[in-house]
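Report of the visiting student (M.T.), summer placement. My assignment was to run the structure pipeline on a short list of targets and document each run. The first record concerns EamA family transporter.
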Amino acid sequence: MGFLIMNDSLIRFSYVVLMGFGFPIMRYMSIHFETLNNNAVRFLSGGFLFIFICALKYRNELVKLLREPTIVLYLILLAILMTCNMYFFINGLKYTSALAGSIFGIISMPLAVFMASIFFKDEREKIKQTHFYIGSALALMGSLIFVIYGNKSSGSNDFIMGSLLLGTAISIQSIQNLLVKKISNKLNTIVISASTATLSGIFYLFLATQSGVIYQLHDVSSGLLIGLILAGMYGMLTGMLFAFYIVQKQGVIVFNIIQLTVPLSTSLIGYFTLGETISIYQGFGALIVILGCIVSLRKKHYEVNHK
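After the run finished, the structure tokens were exported:
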């Protein structure tokens, strides 16, 4: 039991640190690549990596797909949601910052908890507590402060536009997490990640080809393109596989609690890699967001630590 707890703790810590690097990487690539090309290359490279892993160690999982065709439909729906989610998210990063992306990731917590409580009994008790609504209100207020003062510091409406795009992305992500939890009872996490990443990559490749933006890749240096491929593998392993694994093994709420610390690592790494800074008021708003999420999830966090 002690080994399993230590192993789970290591996974949580690794997720926070790796995602701290992940947001600056996504921000950098969003500046240098058109969104459709960006996501097509990243998802396909990550998806092929997952397929290779599945071919080596999880071939027996494919039998489950043949026995239950409805799972395939769920996987397709999950890929569609992921495609929409990341389209808005990458565009949002382009107009804001790496830190803004991570902040909006935790703003989605109250919405994710509420959505999960509708469909899953083990997540339902949370919304019966008064502090859930108090914390949610604090998180919303903090996010508004962060967005308003972010727009003032940028001196344009781009930050507001980016914030709206990020907000749309996290709304879709809340629904997406419900499907992940439902499917994870029947399929291994790596199989879910492989199908989601590959299908989303195919969707993006089709859209990039139809719109003609795919030809922009001819003008990109081979070094930058290789960097995007590696970034895709890195992003899928951290942002998708780790996230899906934690949702599967520890639940939606525990995953959301872990997300609270991601902006801290993102802001530190973003400062050194991209030169990103935030105003005092934005920092205050970010702290209110984190405080609000801690308050809204407090009782469940206590229960998790004392089981």
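The chain is about 85% helix and 0% strand. Residues 2-116+158-266 form one domain. I thank the supervising group for their guidance throughout the placement.
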